Amino acid sequence: MRAKPFLCAIFACVAFLFIGCGVDNFVYLYPVKQILHSPSADDFNNYYEFRTTDDDNASNASDYFRGFEIYYRIYNSDTIRAQDVSDISTWNTNNPTTVFNYISTTKKYVRMNAAGRIGSYPLIFGTSTDRDVKIRLIDYGIESAAINVGGTGLGTPLRTKNEGTQTDSFTFGEIASTDSDVTYSTSGETTKFYVQAYVFAYGYDTVYKPIYSSAFGLGTITITN
Which pLDDT tens digit goes with each residue over 26-59? Predict the structure, then answer.
């Protein structure tokens, strides 16, 4: 009969370990799921457009959901870009909860900023209603480079050229092969760059640790210098 207190102690320890390991701290954020436009190389169609998942996130994780972040990388080799996209797709399928770290650390993607959002996080603030987001990285005719969220302009899209710095004001119209956000290959293009981007739902968990959804690919914008 003395075994009962011993078993109770074991169960208590196991329960404590689960709580201590943060099992009960898991918060799920819904990734973007609808692309409205896939970029193409011609200037008129050379932009990103997608619909947010504010409704799902606000309904199911209102205390933790904050909005959306976009991460990008610039390539001068479409072959290398395509291989990275394949690698990211595989990781996103097999390890969706860690794909943000894979993209930002292993593949060295960096955060996109905007002239009207410098010093503010996230890039796209969360609401309770889904919105359409259009991003044009470079000017086209009378349409200027801009990030537009549900009819509200966030200003010109900006690059993060220096790791860890979010106040850079470099635009996507001034790309150099030595920039830190560029994967440059000597066998690639000399006057053409490919900008691959991903969007994440962003927020905090119950202990205020930043969390990200799985990745949603926005496609590739082509920039010719």
Answer: 899 999 999 999 999 999 999 999 999 999 999 9
CB 100 within 8 A of CB 153: no
> Per-residue pLDDT tens for 156-198?
999 987 655 555 568 999 899 999 999 999 999 999 999 999 9
Q: What is the pTM of this model?
A: 0.87
Report how far residue 200's alpha carbon sits from residue 220's, in angstroms, rounded to the nearest whole number: 16
Pairing of strands 157-158, 182-183: unpaired
Do the Cβ atoms of 114 and 156 come closer than 8 Å? Answer: yes
Q: CA nearest 136: which of 218, 54, 31?
A: 218
Sequence-distant (6+) residues with CB within 8 A of 65 are 29, 54, 57, 58, 126, 201, 202, 203
Q: Which amino acid is at 163?
A: E
What's the rounded Cα separation, in Å, for the pair 55 and 45?
Answer: 28
Give dist(CA 112, CA 221) in Å, integer: 14
Query: What contacts 24+ positions apart, CB below 8 Å, involve 161-168?
Result: 163/110, 166/111, 166/113, 166/118, 166/119, 167/118, 167/119, 168/113
- 118: three-class secondary structure by DSSP: coil
Q: Please check the confidence at residue 25 and state whether its pLDDT lies above 90.
A: no
Q: How does DSSP classify residue 177? A: T
